[in-house]
Amino acid sequence: VKRLILVLGDQLSDDLSALREGDKETDIVVMAEVRSETDYVAHHPKKIAFLFAAMRKHAERLRADGWDVRYSRLDDTENTQSIPGELIRYADETGAEEVLATEPGEFRLIDALEECPIPVHLFPDDRFLCSHAEFEAWAEGRKELRMEWFYREMRRKTGLLMEGDKPAGGKWNYDAENRKPPKEGLDPSGPMKFTPDKTVQEVLDLVAAQFGNRYGSLDDFWFATEPGQARRALAHFIRRSLPTFGDFQDAMVTGEPYMFHALLSPYINAGLLGWREVCEAAVQAYEDGDAPLNAVEGFVRQIIGWREYIRGIYFLEGPDYPQRNGLGHDRDLPEFYWTGDTDMHCLKECVTATMDNAYAHHIQRLMVTGNFALLAGLDPQQVSEWYLIVYADAYEWVEAPNVVGMSQFADGGVVASKPYVSGGNYINRMSDYCKHCSYSVSTKTGEGACPFNLLYWHFLNRHRERFENNPRMAQMYRSWDRMDEGRRETVITEGDAFLQRLSAGNRV
Ligand code: FAD
Ligand code: DLZ
Ligand code: SF4
């Protein structure tokens, strides 16, 4: 029988399970730009432009490789604007009776395919290192699913940075060396940028016309949109940034949105790069003496450790995971998350960079926008939707465990063993933000006090029952209890007042 092979926007890898199952002689590849995918949340225009341009180029590559490809552009008049709709339309058109697909990275789309009136055969997405079965077997019977133990298994499995059965250099994890604050004179070269070609320009015009009114800037688009470019971006990162990546992984500097980060996540997640080539390039740099072990180990851990672990959690925990709200937080997301219009310089800087670039690096996501959301008790689903919209690398499988789990502790501690919260001191140590802020980071209460300082204690106090017996938090509660009672009352009263202003939509 004639079959359709579905290739989704984040399945742009040359080696894809559904294509491997197909037959170039008889089967037809379907790729579709559709409103159901651009609108399930109001994605940043740069994210849509990146995906559409990469999809169009991938379709051309598949054609050159001998496939018959039906490609729906968003503004084609017959476009039914949903993935199942397009499958049905092309099945009618071609007489195909079945669909082959690689498992989508989201339960919403898996369900939609399962409900499709044409039989859809799903094949595992084996572009990941760890299969669902392997992750389940690892998780089975464990009281705590800590990334570090999972990561060691992946090191052993891949042999990356291994000397026999021992980790290179004698330690599994060199994170302790990766927390240097920024210093004067750092000069990150930033990611490699690509001038839009004809295909990209056509997509930019379409996206400007259809999504130009949305949150996020389309100006200065420079993402890689094909594997060759993504590989050049990888080589550029390895040469220029990897040697310093480890040391300054957590550092933040005003006007430096990329620091020494790879900016490879949009490419890896969409399939333009694979985990293996990325990790092998980094390990090669270590073996050639071009990058230190702390940087290379840190980078490899993000990819075969964190990235795989996060995906494992999403599929292990199931469809209700993104809806969890373990701390019962319900405050609405403040408007400044969309505008950057706040006196808190750290938040202004991270939100503005996000609007401009559809990117922020890990510590900005975790310790600025995420930390504030958690301290202020924002509704984790609104927070999660924001992250899914604003980042070019965001798909639910990776976004939800990072946000609902790691950042907002709304999964009750599956991903994180304690909430990632801090007062202004941490941000001050790791950035130059506080120097440019109208709040004072050294002021704990009263006029001009940094809101992170107030909210930090406010958070600990209101969640005392939940956290005081957590051994990793005992020290914090001891500090709070040692504080003078009058001071504690002031912190609570001023914290309450700040949160009321926030909820009322006043400028903060
Ligand atoms: P680098 O810092 O240079 O890291 C290298 C690579 O490691 C990344 O390209 C990425 O592929 C991988 N990686 C690192 N950490 C993680 C992680 N925690 N989960 C998955 N992969 C990881 N990453 C996404 O890909 N999509 C998301 O939607 C996403 N949302 C996040 C939300 C929050 C609140 C937090 C704290 C983190 C989130 N991350 C997400 C993880 C991480 O911040 C990004 O992968 C990283 O910032 C991407 O930039 P980079 O390529 O410059 O990364
Ligand atoms: C994110 C996205 C967007 C914005 N648009 C499309 C699209 O038009 N067509 C498509 O096939 N895929 C798109 N995607 C990616 C899907 O939403 C993604 O496959 C699911 O979120 C599963 O990871
Ligand atoms: Fe952010 Fe507080 Fe520093 Fe201002 S003083 S930049 S609000 S941490």
TrEMBL record:
Residues 171-194 are annotated as: Disordered. Residues 171-186 have a biased composition (Basic and acidic residues). GO terms for molecular function: lyase activity. It comes from Jannaschia aquimarina. SUPFAM superfamilies: Cryptochrome/photolyase FAD-binding domain (SSF48173). InterPro entries: Crypto/Photolyase_FAD-like_sf, PhrB-like, Rossmann-like_a/b/a_fold, UV-DNA_repair_photolyase. Keywords: Lyase. This is Deoxyribodipyrimidine photo-lyase-related protein. Pfam families: DPRP.
